[in-house]
Amino acid sequence: MPTQILMPALSPTMEEGTLARWLKAEGDTIEAGDVIAEIETDKATMEFEAVDEGVLGKILVPGGTDGVKVNQPIGILLAEGEDESALEDAVKAAESKSGPKSEPASAPAEAEPPSSPKPEAAPAPAQEESDEDPEPTYDSFKRQSVREALRDAMAEEMRRDPDVFVMGEEVAQYEGAYKITQGLLAEFGDKRVVDTPITEMGFAGLGVGAAFAQLKPIVEFMTFNFSMQAIDQIINSAAKTLYMAGGKMGCPIVFRGPNGAAARVAAQHSQCYASWYAHVPGLKVIAPWSAADAKGLLKAAIRDPNPVVFLENEILYGQTFDVPDVEDFVLPIGKAKVERRGTDVTLVAFSRMVGHCMEAAETLAGEGISAEVINLRTLRPLDTATILRSVRKTNRVVTVEEGWPFAGIGAEIGQLCMEQAFDWLDAPVTRVAGADVPMPYAANLEKLALPQPAQVVEAARAVCYASSQG
Amino acid sequence: MVASRRDRASSKDSEPAVDAHRFEPADLEHYYRSMLLIRRFEERAGQLYGMGLIGGFCHLYIGQEAVVVGLQALAREGDSIITSYRDHGHMLATGMDPKGVMAELTGRIGGYSKGKGGSMHMFSREKRFFGGHGIVGAAVPLGTGLAFAHQYNEDGGICFCYFGDGATNQGQVYESFNMAALWKLPVVYVIENNRYGMGTSVERAAAAGDLSQRGAAYGIPGKGVNGMNVLEVIEGAAEAVDHVRGGNGPYLLDVKTYRYRGHSMSDPAKYRSKDEVSKMRSESDPIDQLKKRLLEDGVFDEAHLKDIDKQVKEIVGEAAEFAQNSPEPDPAELWTDILVDA
Ligand SMILES: Cc1ncc(C[n+]2csc(CCOP(=O)(O)OP(=O)(O)O)c2C)c(N)n1
Ligand SMILES: [Mg+2]
């Protein structure tokens, strides 16, 4: 039986990729371990090695093809002694099989239903009702991934201020484990783009010390999971010094990296630190959703004279949004954004969950429920004014976060509404949050552990006392 | 598991030369079989990852087989073992069931952690395998704690505590060294020095390159061992194991090895040359080396080794089959195992 060569998954988040080029031609003999093709993921170009031996009978997907789904047959391998006729059957069989298998276990990225990133709504609708201080409007935008926006933000600030430097594991020569620091070493050199050993407590503390001496470090944690190694330095050294020094010494430093769940990386590598860091006086905590948020807020964070914890999200890195095409696009820290106007219910979220809320709002609109979506952008200081203004209009609130519910950001917002908008509430504030368990590895359980747009829809219906549809 | 060898583990050999004839054929066969099982298992895991059946991080042990197989040859019933996320080889070497390991990789109920831990997080009380840890360096204090328990219980056991070259730069490693030396805890610290921590070479990460001397400030003896040859691992580590079993406190081994594959499945490995990898593969492969030795010395003939290959392939085939057929965990499992009922 000829063997189908299938498009391989080459990273935890890969669903499709570009088959950049074949290194073998039809008719070539292949040994197990031979590199047969080059495949581009959103992060890197990877070599694809053969597992089986034989003769490359047929190339089904030519080099240079984009958007090849994982598990799609890309070629046919003939075993010793197999001929043309076997090949024909195999080609037919391969063609009848399109895209990835549908059984649950074989779709690794199933935990992330492609959450159709809506292009960030151009600020136009936000003008219908007047904010106390509305965001400026922009005429021209450029389409950028969150990854590129973060890189540009750092590069622009490094050009602007020679005291800014970036430090962390694999940030320089490898250009970032998630390719956020791409190109920075080439432009700024190894004095300002510094690869560290694996020593988080050490380099986080070193960064704080350098900030005491008035440099402006950007400390990258490969993921925020590893910031737990360094949390004492972040809280005891960075957050508290200004206070302990009676205002005489501060610490302009940014701690950044991906936060929250990625895909199938299990309990020690998937958790949300939003409420952990937002708990701490002396820190600012930012959690951007769109590429515009990422760009404007990271620039603001680097300029801020305080320690800032900047929580990114790995799954958002590859998503694209419109970013205002202006020189020096900086967003204010502490200001939320109304991403979608609505009158019946307020959905409050940050980071990736904003996308879930936008999706839910669309579904709700189809049912006649008008949802307003607030993208918090900053968690500390929290933009209570924007939340309260919305609540007083819609009288109903659903908070959405990926982290655990207990003592989470949703709990804080619920309390805020109780204290400051009690008389306006027509239903109890409701939380949608991650399941109160360590993150499981199994695909089906991971999906159950993470908030899904359908849960947001369900919660919104409940606070609107609408019966569920369909 | 390796009965005949075990009795000789404490006989100290001073000559470094390795002579396959000083090992019993049964032992040699066991080393060969164990290394091959790890190799074939890992190749299959890589294949299942490519098919989307395994997700997330998956760190393969290919190239490093001689390290754990050699050290396990010196282990006794009751010893403990702990390592990081590059853990499949350690589990197979302690005799854990390949089916249960593979099914954990696919996230199924038949896996060692019911599919809830995945590649990096498996455990077996029975085999005294204590994980399976994702945080670089974190297993070192944990292994030191296992040694503390051996001493506390006076059970004669020791802990084999494995970590990477990259992990040697974590502060908690040195906090552990200090306590272990201070209290003479029975722990063999094993650095699996595969030259890189992700994309960073030892030279770019560690001051004063010789990692075997990282315990010197605490008076912990250390030495380098060739980790690409299983017999040299055994000979080289015997002294360390004797030292630790003898109640003299910790010992640090810098076992020089190499990983053939990328750090995990998504690493294009641009930080090293292809020549470097292919040279290691062709000149220093642990399985090829042992095979050549066995044939040249006439310990086994080609046919016997082929038989072993076949048996190993079958075991791995069955494991892969089991891992694909075992069902996903029941949704109710999401809410179990958070706390023990008390
Ligand atoms: C505290 C911490 N920081 C960073 C990481 C990400 N990370 C995973 S493995 C790794 C490299 C470790 O290298 P080494 O200790 O040499 O082990 P090897 O992977 O070579 O076996 C890094 C940086 C992590 N898991 N934990
Ligand atoms: Mg290493």
Automatic annotation (TrEMBL), chain A:
Pfam families: Biotin_lipoyl, Transket_pyr, Transketolase_C. SMART domains: Transket_pyr. Its EC number is 1.2.4.1. GO terms for molecular function: pyruvate dehydrogenase (acetyl-transferring) activity. It catalyses: N(6)-[(R)-lipoyl]-L-lysyl-[protein] + pyruvate + H(+) = N(6)-[(R)-S(8)-acetyldihydrolipoyl]-L-lysyl-[protein] + CO2. Its cofactor is thiamine diphosphate; (R)-lipoate. Residues 89-100 have a biased composition (Basic and acidic residues). It comes from the Bacteria. Residues 101-113 have a biased composition (Low complexity). Residues 87-144 are annotated as: Disordered. Keywords: Lipoyl, Oxidoreductase, Pyruvate, Thiamine pyrophosphate. GO terms for biological process: pyruvate decarboxylation to acetyl-CoA. Residues 2-78 form the Lipoyl-binding domain. Heterodimer of an alpha and a beta chain. The pyruvate dehydrogenase complex catalyzes the overall conversion of pyruvate to acetyl-CoA and CO2. This is Pyruvate dehydrogenase E1 component subunit beta.
TrEMBL record, chain B:
Residues 1-20 are annotated as: Disordered. Its EC number is 1.2.4.1. The keyword Hydrolase does not apply. Residues 34-331 form the Dehydrogenase E1 component domain. Pfam families: E1_dh. GO terms for molecular function: pyruvate dehydrogenase (acetyl-transferring) activity. Its cofactor is thiamine diphosphate. Signal peptide: none annotated. The keyword Oxidoreductase applies. Keywords: Oxidoreductase, Pyruvate, Thiamine pyrophosphate. It catalyses: N(6)-[(R)-lipoyl]-L-lysyl-[protein] + pyruvate + H(+) = N(6)-[(R)-S(8)-acetyldihydrolipoyl]-L-lysyl-[protein] + CO2. GO terms for biological process: pyruvate decarboxylation to acetyl-CoA. It is an enzyme of class 1 (oxidoreductase). Heterodimer of an alpha and a beta chain. The pyruvate dehydrogenase complex catalyzes the overall conversion of pyruvate to acetyl-CoA and CO(2). It contains multiple copies of three enzymatic components: pyruvate dehydrogenase (E1), dihydrolipoamide acetyltransferase (E2) and lipoamide dehydrogenase (E3). NCBIfam families: PDH_E1_alph_y. PANTHER family: PYRUVATE DEHYDROGENASE E1 COMPONENT SUBUNIT ALPHA, PYRUVATE DEHYDROGENASE E1 COMPONENT, ALPHA SUBUNIT BACTERIAL AND ORGANELLAR. This is Pyruvate dehydrogenase E1 component subunit alpha. The lineage of its organism: Bacteria, Pseudomonadati, Pseudomonadota, Alphaproteobacteria, Rhodospirillales. The gene is pdhA.
